[in-house]
Amino acid sequence: MLNNLKRLLWREDGAVTVDWVVLTAAIVGLSVAAISTVRTAATDKSTGIGARLSSHQVGLD
């Protein structure tokens, strides 16, 4: 029983899993930050384009 506990404490198999969890969380966090920045910029730009298009008159004279 004591040998099993010692072996469990010295194993490093779980460390790789922890590394992947941390890396995945960092990637997700950076992706959310990037998407929110692009979303804000795209919304502002599309509002300006919509205002400019609505001010033009299109028709046959």
Question: What can you tell me about this protein's structure?
Answer:
- Keywords: Membrane, Transmembrane, Transmembrane helix.
- This is Pilus assembly protein.
- The protein has two helices and no strands.
- With 61 residues, it is an all-alpha fold.
- The longest helix is centred in the middle third of the chain and has 43 residues.
- 0% of the residues are buried.
- It is rod-shaped, with a radius of gyration of 27 Å.
- The model has no long low-confidence stretch (mean pLDDT 87).
- The chain has one domain.
Tell me what portion of residues adopts beta-strand conformation: under 5%
- SSE arrangement, N to C: HH
How widely separated are the two ends?
A: 94 Å
The parts where pLDDT drops under 50 for at least 5 residues are none
Count of runs of 4 or more consecutive helical residues: 2
The class by helix and strand makeup works out as mainly alpha
Helix content: over 70%
* DSSP strand tally: 0
Largest sheet: none
Rough outline: rod-shaped
Number of structurally distinct domains? 1
Mean pLDDT: 87
Q: What value does the Rg take, in angstroms?
A: 27 Å
